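Support case: nicotinamide-adenine-dinucleotide complex. Customer-provided input:
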Amino acid sequence: MIEIPHNARERFGNARSVAFLTGAGISAESGVPTFREAQAGLWARYSPEDLATPQAFARNPRMVWEWYQWRRQLVMEASPNLGHEAIAAMERVIPKFHLITQNVDGLHQKAGSTRVIELHGNIFQNRCFREGMVLDLVLESVDPPPRCPHCGGPVRPGVVWFGEPLPQREIHEAESICGDLDILVVAGTSGLVHPAAGLPARAKAAGAFVIEINPEPTALSELADVHLRAMAGPALVALLELRV
Ligand code: NAD
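Agent response - structure generated as follows:
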């Protein structure tokens, strides 16, 4: 049973304009490891910063491609959890609803969310490493990584790596949403990866009430009006119950 403080119950129950900002923690209950948890098994010797950067890909494209193929497989086998489903249901009951995610796993869409702003791309997309263009490829079992059919350059996953800029349209849209909100719910993010981590401060400065859902304190906890120290699944279901 999740205890939601009275002020959050009242604000969330009556809000017209609500955005959700999600991170890797919301998919943890689906068995998709956060980067911290992913440092296990086969890949324990590498930190995500050693694998999820353009420099790492340039140095060793095969290894980075194989890490992503392993993660794609994990994500493909995963199902959305209660948290993803509660957010999908809220899209149908909240008049001005927005969903912004740092996740690349597509589980929000799998749960039925129809409008998802993906700040960090999507793991199933493929792009040319040289020219950046999105490629519609059938992946065959070739020597990894596959090659771009246009220029012969190596193919990379269509995610935003550490040190790379975010897609302009998505980050501008997210910033504009955060400038005009009643409530921002921040679920399952450590608040350490910028510029996404700056969105809660922007929302707060523009007058939004910020609710954080995370079992651990984070870089965003001080800024939040309410911190629900709980797993995303049950906490989001408890919020949904205030709207139905
Ligand atoms: P992060 O790994 O830095 O932090 C995860 C946060 O989730 C932590 O604060 C942790 O306490 C919290 N958490 C763990 N289990 C939770 C649960 N059940 N409910 C609620 N919170 C829980 O993740 P981040 O802040 O999203 O940033 C990492 C970057 O890594 C992002 O850019 C993201 O694109 C990428 N990433 C994505 C995925 C994915 O798509 N599923 C997975 C790993 C990493």
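Residues 65 and 131 are 17 Å apart (CA to CA).

Case will auto-close in a few days if no follow-up is received.
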